[in-house]
Design goal:
Order of helices and strands: EEEEEEEEEHEHHHHHHHH
CATH class of the largest domain: Mainly Beta
Largest sheet: 5 strands, antiparallel
CATH topology of the largest domain: Jelly Rolls
Strand order of the largest sheet: 2-9-4-7-10
Distance between the termini: 29 Å
Number of helices: 9
Structural class: alpha+beta
CATH superfamily of the largest domain: Jelly Rolls
Strand content: 15-25%
Number of domains: 2
Shape: globular
CATH architecture of the largest domain: Sandwich
Amino acid sequence: MTNEKREIFRDNKLAVSVEHSIDVNQFITVPHLHYHYEIYYNVNGGKSFFIENEFYECGPHDLFVIPKTHIHKVVAEKNKPYERCVIHIDDEIIASVNSMPQMNFCLSWMDEVGTQYPRKVTLCENKHEKFMMHIREYNRIEDTRNELLLYSKLFEILAFARAEFDNTPTVCEKSAEPESWSDKALGYIEKNFRKISVLGIASNLYVNEDYLNKVFKAETGITLNNYIILRKIAEAKKLLYLGYSVKETCVLSGFNDYANFIRTFKRIEGCSPGSFEIHKCSSEVYKK
């Protein structure tokens, strides 16, 4: 079994990262969010994609754009190789490009995915080959450590993605029903995490509480109760990042007791909410 790291609010180490990877063992992750933008491309092996309360069908050559702070996760097919490309882009890069003269906020569409734009597009074979060529070329340039060329290639990828999303009508996208008990629990938690209990989740899913907790722990590596706490803390970090006060964050993230919120946040993050800062990534776009 292959697991990603289990932090729910994740920090990226680089301003831009472009990865093409394949897992041959079972791939399991938990929902997560971050302050950077993500472009996710399922080459093969993805089954469904969870974004903001909903599971979407995820087939070969499906391209997703995930706006910053949108919680998401992929569900991969069992016992099949899982191949994907994942691009992370720091939010300051997107904001800087949008504010450049004569750019006319050309990347603002990335914040409108899920409303004005569809969650995903499906690439035909020719477009698939072109997209993978961009990824291979980016990785080749990365070895030269030439940031100017890397940003040039990044903008080509962004222009490619925008053209595909511009040409795809916003229609009612096919949702996917979660199959595993852990995914069903995650969907329910996302809609109710501010005021929820393990017993409440089990009752609403009509499943035994102990069994659900056991399955959830086996499939995610986290107990249900710990996941709920981490989800609340992730929401708190998101709200602090967006500029909410500590008191507002306490209430909006689902903590009814202010002292407990401070104590829990400090235990998990190692600092108080008032002193918390998002550690911005390196300005470099290549790996050291």
